[in-house]
Design a protein that fits this description.
241 residues; mainly alpha; Methane Monooxygenase Hydroxylase, Chain G, domain 1; 7 helices; elongated; PhoU; PhoU_dom; cytoplasm
């Protein structure tokens, strides 16, 4: 490669990183605003989140086009290849986080049709944890700090436990008072979306760790048991045959 080609390639990779940082900022803002819209029953803010998802989707498509061009024309190797493939994976996770934030905003609009219930605050607290995890992993990507990726990866169980606790509480509410079934069901969907956002943050942590080290972060991701899922049968049971 000539010096000019190397410089141009470096600039393209830096531009790709800048696009990812911008996309991450949009996704973080969408999630934060969706949680605020739900907690404050702010219909205007919820609609802003819903409309703003197009911007995240467009940026993902632009990033994918740049990545395809890099792979075709530059044929990167080593860290450059890891950086290019990592960008593709990270853009996918950020796009899904944007979708989940939009889903939360849609639920926020529906929840406003019901009287407020106390557990909305618990869902809001869970949302703030998700926002913090997303911010932490975006900061890790920008700073190249491997320790930040490990920290987020290890926090995955925290959101799982919040979701499990909320699932049981909301189920109890709905069983005790049929009037709670509507708002309770919508809050359950919000909580599940937040739990999924935690999973995407963990995915991003794994990608960033591999980008920076060239190694896998581990195989046994810490997970809490989802109370909505039936337990798996023992390996030697009749149902597993």
């Amino acid at each position: 490669m000539t010096e000019h080609t190397v410089r141009a390639f470096t600039e393209e990779l830096e531009a790709l990183g800048a696009d990812l940082n911008r996309m991450g900022g949009y996704s973080e803002q969408a999630l934060s605003d969706a949680i605020t819209a739900m907690a404050r029953r702010d219909a205007g803010l919820a609609r802003t989140v819903i409309d703003g998802d197009k911007k995240i989707d467009e940026l993902q498509r632009e990033i994918e086009r740049k990545i395809m061009r890099l792979l075709a024309l530059r044929q990167p190797l080593g860290r450059d290849l890891r950086q290019t493939v990592a960008a593709l994976k990270l853009a996918g996770d950020l796009e899904r986080i944007g979708d989940l934030a939009k889903n939360i905003a849609k639920r926020a609009l529906t929840i406003q049709e019901f009287d407020p219930i106390a557990l909305t605050r618990s869902v809001e607290r869970m949302g703030k944890i998700a926002v913090t995890q997303l911010k932490q992993i975006l900061d890790t990507f920008a700073s190249h700090e491997v320790a930040g990726a490990v920290s987020v990866w290890m926090q995955d169980e925290e959101l799982d436990e919040h979701y499990n606790s909320l699932f049981r509480e909301l189920l109890t509410y709905m069983m005790e008072d049929p009037r709670m079934i509507g708002p309770g069901a919508h809050l359950l969907f919000v909580a599940k979306n937040l739990e999924r956002i935690g999973d995407h943050c963990t995915n991003m942590a794994e990608v960033i760790y591999y980008l920076e080290t060239g190694e896998d972060i581990g195989t046994d991701r810490p997970k809490a048991v989802d109370p909505a899922m039936p337990p798996l049968p023992p390996p030697n049971s009749e149902s597993s045959k």
